[in-house]
Amino acid sequence: MASLKNLSVIAALSGQGLTVEESAALEVGMRRRSNEEGLTCWYWGKITGTDNDYLVVIGHGPGKGCVSKKFFFCTSNNLVLQEMPSLSSEFAGKAAAVQGRFKGDPSLLLDGDEEDEDKGDDEDEEGVVRPPKFSEMHRLAYTVNAIENDTAVVPRGCGVIDATLSIRPNAGFRGLSFAEAGSLDNYQHLRPSATADLEAAATGAKASDFLDRLSDDEPRGVWALRVDAAQKRSTIRSLKWPGYFFFHELGSNNFAGVYTGNGLANGDLGFML
Fold first, then answer.
1. Fewest CB atoms within 10 Å of the CB: 186, 199, 246, 262?
2. CB neighbours of residue 227 within 10 Å
3. Full DSSP string of 219-273
4. How far is Cα 25 from Cα 73, in angstroms, rounded to an integer?
């Protein structure tokens, strides 16, 4: 997740950015979604396709144990944000089995059944609403959630959990020190923890240490961490999801993470570690 103002830093460090048109359209769309739905919206990233690219925005809201998350997307040839669909277990299974690159057409049917494609999910002649057909839009939702679950990096201590088990920004967070920044113990996933005792964290001394650490991720070596002393900045790249990039300006509360890639996991990861 990143604010649009941090994209220039990310573009300079990773070589990936947005066009002026894309930035302007996303700024308008993010502000509109924030106002209409009461969310804090961030730029999540871009999934490249053979014909068009997908631009993805994430909205954070209140939630227990972690922030709630809602995703929006648009394509590079239609820069109007729309909400990503929820996934049934059937569609999630189908999406996991799809291989190859995205095309960049959310309406593209992936079931091999193009009959009545133009009718979409509208009512038929008898007024019965037909169930949605599996399309690239559903594959996109599955892929974005998979990447988000495996990445969503934040520096340790940037958030605290209160007595209602809700996360809020830590007003006392002043960034990681140079010594802290060199350890994956001090970077966490912004996702519900499978192991943390939230109630103990909320009432104890570890109110800012309740998320899963990157150092516990398997396989070992899946993260590439670098600390630049001259620039007072740390950067992290994912080897599982090539294109995920995170940076943190040491001694400050400024950090951001963005994914820019083809949406495919690294199939050679086992040979690299």
1. 199
2. 19
3. STT-EEEEEETTTTEEEEEESSSTTEEEEEETTSS-EEEEEEE-S---TTHHHH-
4. 12
Which residue pairs from 116-122 have beta carbons closer than 8 angstroms and sit at least 24 positions apart in sequence? none
**DSSP letters spanning 79-121:** EEEEEPPP--HHHHHHHHH--S-B-S-TT-B-SS--TTGGGTT
Task: Please list, in sequence order, all residues whose beta carbon lies within 8 angstroms of the beta carbon of residue 25, skipping any fewer than 6 positions away.
Answer: 74, 79, 80
Q: Which tens digits make up the pLDDT trace of 30-65?
A: 999 999 999 999 999 999 999 999 999 999 998 877
pLDDT of residue 117 exceeding 50: no
CA 254 and chain centroid, separation: 17
Helix (H) or strand (E) holding 61: strand 54-61
- Count other Cβ atoms within 10 Å, centred on residue 184: 18
3-state secondary structure 196-208: CCHHHHHHCCCCC
Distance of alpha carbon 44 from alpha carbon 71, whole angstroms: 9
Token digits of residue 187 = 């970077």
- pLDDT per residue over 183-218, tens digit each? 999 999 999 887 776 666 666 655 567 899 999 999
Element (H, E) at 60: strand 54-61
